[in-house]
Amino acid sequence: MKRITLLLITALQLPAIAGASAIDAMIINGEYSQAYQTAHQALATASDNTARQQAKRDLARVLIQQDKLQRAESLLHELLHGDDVVVPDTLLYADIQDAQVSVLRRTLRSKEALPYAEQALALRRKLLGEEHLLVAESLNNLALLLVDMKKTDTAKVLYQQALTMRQKIAGSESYEAAETLHNLGTLYARAKQYDDAEQQLLSALHIKQKILRPNHPRILNTLSRLGSVYTDKKHYPEAITTLNAVMDGMQENGMAESVIAGITQRELADVYHYQRQIEAAERYYKASLGTLGKVLGTQHYAYGVALNGLGWLYYKNGRAEDGKKMIAESESIMDKAPR
Fold first, then answer.
1. Extents of the domains making up the chain
2. How many CB atoms lie within 10 A of CB 248?
3. What is the DSSP string of 24-44?
4. CA angle (272 as vertex; 108, 11 as ends), nearest 5
5. 235-339 carries CATH number 1.10.3210.10
6. Domain spanning 1-164: which superfamily?
7. Of 44, 94, 196, 275, which is the most buried if we count CB atoms within 10 A?
8. Do 275 and 261 contact (CB within 8 A), yes or no?
9. Radius of gyration of the chain (CA)
10. pLDDT for 136-176, tens place per residue?
């Protein structure tokens, strides 16, 4: 089986939005239900256009964290192109553009997201100057898109700029710095520089474990990527231990049906597949398909990756015809899905 990596969904976009510090704190703390209730209440009680638009922005950002991407995109469309368009050349407009970038990336439309990311960066620089955490956020988000489009050299430069800015403004052991270290780790993993990827991810993990609660979703995200790197390095015992810790944390957080959980299940299936533990591999591939099918749909690229793994498992282990059909179906899904 050829290993197909899928890193773009789980690269991190930091919620750092001007004028929404309460929602930011809840999202950073992984308190998504509370954040949703707060944003929903703010929308219901908004007394003017600006308050209503800010509440819609915040609600969309929470929905993104909950993987409710269609609802988030609908709200953002109202604010960018619909009946409740925000005044351009404002920080609120840049915030909404950045949220749109997140939705488009998670639905594998990075090329469509690029103009929004570039405009948000330019607007924040214009309004805030060259050195600001929101400028660093836009640099980080633009780099994410460039990685998706395989422009890794340019992306690395932007990540380094964002990291330097975040370390200077927020501190070298800040949450903001940790997120950029995580993203650098995914960049190195994508470039098959696995030792560098491991180093960056471990640095990010060390910071997050110091400042976030145990089993925080952002810790689990970094652990999931670290487990993937261990798999790529053929350090299978470490990979299994790490990925199982992620799944335990997902269960504890009520996030068993999330994108990260589905991808982690597929990563576990891959490890067991490589070790020829057929029953365990089949169980996790099926679990991954169930999770990703529910969260992303059965025509999403990530679903195709999991189906491809199960197909090859069957093809090599006595179910060749079933495997051929699954491989063909998975390749059709991956060919048609945006990347």
1. 1-164, 235-339
2. 12
3. HHHHHTT-HHHHHHHHHHHHH
4. 25
5. no
6. Tetratricopeptide repeat domain (1.25.40.10)
7. 94
8. no
9. 20
10. 999 999 999 999 999 999 999 999 999 999 999 999 999 99
